[in-house]
Design goal:
346 residues; alpha/beta; two-stranded parallel sheet; 11 helices; binds S-adenosyl-L-homocysteine
């Protein structure tokens, strides 16, 4: 069955025509799915009963099943565990900031990138998500909270550029007219650094922010943390980021997870500053979230602040990621992982 929620407005018009319905029905259908966030064809009350039956026969209307929500008593952050129609589990996060609500979505069920400190990669890749499955994380969370989603970050489980075509379609549906119509400037895609795909994305001329997971300032150290660095060297990655900026005018965000005793030395800060200074960029420091399966630890608070100060003195824009939802399996992929481990033990 065709996944109707992943179709563009033009494709939907084509389908509607094929079914012998008037063209404006496509717009109504699109609005029901992407603006009113309907979960069933039966909700689409201005379409004839016969047309709705036809739709049910021919199309799948993807709607994620919310399995669990954990909300932080500290800061209102919510973690959402969803089950996909094939039984795979994914998680998403709602963060409430004073400038609006952000949703962090997953782009794949599992991940094959193998970053050493990350919980999402431990079980490997199950599959890439469809555009509709990426969208519906946002739709379900918006409905659950009753509040509008302003920002979307593709920073949950999975490597978005390892699911490129679905990602692009998702971005167009999310930011296009007739749906939630979120501004491209309010969307961030985070990648571990798949160079050819970064270059391809640059050519799409979108106004989204690219976040590059750097985590080390030398090729050698990066390779020890991120297997993807064996495929694409540090200088290639930096060149691709420069190219992204040149093509889009969008400032790059570098993410740097600080791991105590591994990449938090004075020397690391100096090297990092020299590496990124030539770029129009921003550095986001994330004290590593410890996961049970590895013994990486965050540096103590003072070391984090020292690291930040050193970068600032070298003229780098830098922020420390606010740690939200520490009381609710804060670290990436941990809710999903815990749930899956529990299922296995049963
Ligand atoms: N695959 C993409 C997006 C998902 S990961 C990427 O690599 O960018 C989102 C961010 O969280 C990445 O910067 C990733 O390196 C980081 N991350 C993963 N596990 C982490 C942990 N335990 N502590 C801190 N940051 C982590």
């Amino acid at each position: 069955m065709t996944d109707i929620k992943s179709l563009t407005p033009a494709e939907l018009e084509e389908e509607v025509r094929r079914l012998g319905e008037k063209r404006f029905r496509a717009g109504q259908l699109y609005g029901w799915m992407h603006e009113k966030l309907a979960d069933s064809f039966d909700q689409m009350t201005n379409l004839s009963a016969a047309f709705r039956e036809r739709l049910k026969e021919e199309y799948e209307l993807v709607s994620l099943e919310l399995v669990r929500v954990q909300t932080s008593a500290q800061d209102g952050t919510g973690k959402f565990l969803f089950r996909l129609s094939d039984g795979n589990m994914i998680e998403s996060v709602l963060m409430r900031y004073h400038h609006g609500n952000s949703v962090c979505i997953s782009s794949q069920a599992g991940c094959r990138m193998g970053c050493r400190f990350c919980a999402s990669t431990l079980g490997g890749l199950k599959r890439g998500l469809t555009p509709s499955e990426m969208l519906d994380q946002i739709y379900q969370i918006q409905k659950w909270s009753g509040e509008r989603v302003h920002n979307v970050v593709v920073m949950g489980t999975g490597e978005p550029l390892d699911n490129y075509d679905a990602l692009l379609r998702f971005l167009r549906l999310l930011t296009g007219e007739g749906g939630l119509h979120i501004s491209q400037r309010n969307v961030t895609v985070s990648t571990c650094g798949i160079v050819p795909r970064i270059r391809q994305l640059a050519q799409e001329k979108l106004q989204i922010t690219l976040a590059l997971s750097l985590h080390a300032s030398s090729q050698e150290k990066r390779r020890a943390l991120m297997p993807v660095a064996n495929r694409y060297g540090l200088s290639e990655v930096i060149d691709a980021c420069r190219y992204y900026f040149e093509q889009t005018g969008r400032r790059i965000t570098f993410e740097y997870s600080l791991v105590g005793g591994v990449n938090d030395h004075e020397e690391d800060a100096r090297e990092l500053a020299a590496l990124v200074r030539p770029l129009n960029c921003h550095v986001n420091l994330i004290p590593v979230n410890p996961i049970r399966e590895r013994d990486y630890r965050p540096p103590d608070r003072r070391a984090v602040i020292n690291f930040k100060n050193r970068l600032e003195k070298s003229g780098i824009n830098v922020t420390i990621r606010r740690e939200m939802g520490r009381d609710i399996d804060g670290a990436c992929g941990q809710l999903r992982k815990r749930y899956m481990d529990m299922e296995k033990e049963r």
